[in-house]
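Q: Structure tokens for this one, please.
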Amino acid sequence: MKVEQIYTGCLAEAAYYIESNGEAAIIDPLRESSPYIERAKKDGAKIKYVLETHFHADFVSGHLDLSNKTGATIVFGPTAEPGYAAHIAEDNEILELGNVKIKVLHTPGHTMESTSFLLIDENGKDVGVFTGDTVFIGDVGRPDLAVKTDLSQEDLAGHLYESIQNKILPLADDVIIYPGHGAGSACGKNMSKETTDTLGNQRKFNYALQAKTKEDFIASVLDGLVAPPQYFPKNAVLNKMGYQSIDTVLHQGLQALSPAAFEVAAEETGALLLDLRDPQDFAKEFIPNSINIGLDGTFATWVGTLIPDLKQQLLLIAEPGTEEEAVTRLARVGYDGTIGFLKGGIESWKKENKELDQIETIDAEEFAILYHYSENLNVLDIRRKSEYDSEHIQGVENFPLDFINQNMAELKNDQKYYLHCAGGYRSMIMSSILKSRGFEHVVNINGGFAALKNTGKFQLTDYTAPKTML
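A: Here is the predicted structure, written as tokens:
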């Protein structure tokens, strides 16, 4: 028997490969199916099952393509109602896989169809439980993503409590918890950087498992939840109802366009120009009205947070050779509208002597002088509220990038704004958005809050009290 976690850091997502005696199961695969097919081929195994713990909200699963290409049976837990062929398993149903067994444990709460899969080895011993978004390392799944008019987040949290008490906690301490996500995912609020652990350790260290009563559990799990990214419910619908093959998405998106063709496509389609380069490179020169979301950061999550329409057509400006990765990562979160990329990247645009724009930047030391000797500076800390509350520069306003689309009316395009995030990735995103919307006086602070703090020249304030830096 083999159990492998296939972890994708940019989405903080864990898929799993289980193999026994020539048969394999894949749990919660990402959109692209080839890595799982190749993994099974390496073992000479046939993929028998694609097990889905629930209708995911934070990514588009690859269950449909993987099933179509391998003949594997898609399996959901009780109450799931997918818009395509799948096996809807009963609670406690046993699935045979080679010499091992997988027991279906219905664990509603994160969503009502949420299901965990208990792996039982050749000797009948419980080895591990694949919990999806029911139990994480250090946390449990948020119960506010599947709220309906007749089902509140308190109701869902109550279901989650019962699921954990009745299905997970009765298992032995040495059973390994294999969660669907790790730190960085918006599917929980307190996830550990560790991506597996024993149930025994989680009994001791997972705050949500310490609750003495259902009421305590509900209160602790709901405390401090912030609104999820806007694309979450849209991805859940795709996972439930179906979507086009990623092969089609890649064929459409990987159209190499000359600068002239790129320009024509932009004018004729109204596509959003998405520049995936490093923020510092973008600041020096970029195609006017393009938006920078760097591919090396949490790219897909920020695309999903900031671009409201999954069907938005996209034209990419990328470092040559990274285009397929970009289209794939966009498809993972349901953005299938890429219609091409600039062949040769920004260098080809420059060779044609076409118009370029730039973002004004300022170093932390230079900004410190400006900050202390100027009046009425508009400085925006665009980190999340939790980051801002933890520590920020006294007098600087919090304007989270996450909610820029909702809060744009608060900004005036005739004002000059100085922006910083933690290190510079997010502030360049916001700088590019503001520039594209007619804000000509935008200044990005290089190095973000970390660089500002390291100067030792600012008074810092946390949520409770101010303190002066030494």
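A few notes: The first strand starts at residue 2 and ends at 8. DSSP finds 17 helices and 25 strands in the chain.
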